[in-house]
Amino acid sequence: MVFVTVGSAPQGFERLLKEVDRLAGMGTFGESDVFMQSGHTKYMPLHCESDDFVSRDEFQHLVQQASLVICHGGVTLLEVIRAGKVPIVMPRRKQFGEIVNDHQVEFVQALATKGWIIPAMNPEDLPEAISKAKQKAQELRIPSSSMVEMVSRSIDELCQ
């Protein structure tokens, strides 16, 4: 599942949602469902499920379940990073009326240099960012082995 979140800013973020919806319609995400938390954006996606807002618990569940998280450049991305994910982040921009100043651009650039996020500064950057995120997910995947299986079973048994 792909989770897209634009936060709760009073301004919409149509540029991000429209492009993700277009990419979903083209099959960019493969068989994955795409769920959008659209906030105050009035755009109604054609190829994705959406809801204006989700509860905190549902947000955390969606982040944990997502194979890919795409979000804005606000505080939300820190929660995604804390959950062990490397999000694709597109900053809201003042010139499009998405935010009051361009602090998200600076924040995204700073975190990208650390390798904590995959930046997509504009909608046209999303396909390459998605490709990088898929590659990174493959690199981070722990290879299956009998030792990993044994440890996993032991942890499951202890938790019961």
Please name the defining characteristics of this protein.
single chain; 160 residues; alpha/beta; Rossmann fold
Describe the structure.
This protein is of the alpha/beta class and 160 residues long. It has one domain (2-159): 3-Layer(aba) Sandwich (Rossmann fold). It is 44% helix and 12% strand. It is built from 6 helices and 6 strands; from the N terminus they run E-H-E-E-H-E-H-E-H-E-H-H. It has helices spanning 14-25, 56-65, 76-82, 103-114, 126-140, 146-159; strands spanning 2-5, 34-37, 49-51, 68-71, 88-89, 118-119. Strands 3-2-1-4-5-6 form a 6-stranded parallel β-sheet, sandwiched between helices. Strand 1 (2-5), helix 1 and strand 2 (34-37) form a beta-alpha-beta unit. The protein is globular and about 55 Å long. The relative contact order is 0.15. The mean pLDDT is 89.
